[in-house]
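Comment thread on ticket #2218

A.B. wrote:
> Attaching the input chain for the structure job we discussed in standup.
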Amino acid sequence: MRWHRRWANLFSYDETNTWRLKFAIDSAGADLKDVSVIFGDLQGNAAWQEFTNRLNPQSRDDKVPEPASPQSRKRVGIALAIVFAAAILSVGIWYSQTRKIEPAAIQSDSEIASIAILPFANMSGDPDQEYFSDGITDDLITDISKISNIYVISRNSTFTYKGKTAKAQQIGKDLDVRYILEGSVCKVGDRIRINAQLIDTATGHHLWAERYDGNLGDIFELQDRITQKIVAALSIELTETDLHHLSRRETDNFEAYEAYLQGWEHQRRDTKSDLVEAVSSFKTAIELDPTYSEAHAALSLAYQHIAGRRWDVDLGWGDVRSF
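C.D. wrote:
> Ran it. Output below, let me know if you need it in another format.
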């Protein structure tokens, strides 16, 4: 795996000034403490302090400052949330982007299996449940990507096949992968059924096909069983690091998980009303499980999208403490 120094920028501006905060990461799996923060000629804590000072109108006025308006406090809070969200998400986003470098070279390594996880079909008979089947797909992509000896195609590539019919051999050729995982999700009341099948694109043959039934509260266990089945079918030997990553679960609270999935469904639509709904859903997830770090990061990202379009002004959002 080859890494290049990756940069991201956060811009903030008023009528006369523009400020840019930069942060960078050098390697996969880096902690947040390894993110370099730069503002002008300053680095580290000094850069962070100066940037936040610039966001506060009081620090740019030699006169006796007036109390900051709820709107200005809101904008400062949004900016702070953006930085933390970007730092958290950059590790995962840049890691997945870097893994996609030269897929042909990765394919040539006989020890690394390549797989595309196609969008699971929603068989619930309710279009409003689409978020749930998409969420199951996203989680399987995330979980299997944690395994060192499996190369997983990104969501952006596999979701181009959503709602389409294509032969396994053609998908394998298009995405340059040996295997594809496809399936369906049926969620009715408190019950869920997941059908999954692993296909060898070289032959078009099924390596295995299985049905998983359970209560909604069993969803995490069902996902784990599918991941374990893929590992066994591809004869992957898990390392201690793989086992550690797979054992980590963001939440055990199904209601929080469902609210999180609903939030992402709205977030991807990226309209003003949908982003407001996304914020509400992510807040619900956090209220149900305050330790749900992915929900915190997603909430910050939703605020970033809203602030970037100045929709926070249109919405008349008040005190930053309402975040």
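A.B. wrote:
> Thanks. Noting for the ticket: The mean pLDDT is 76.
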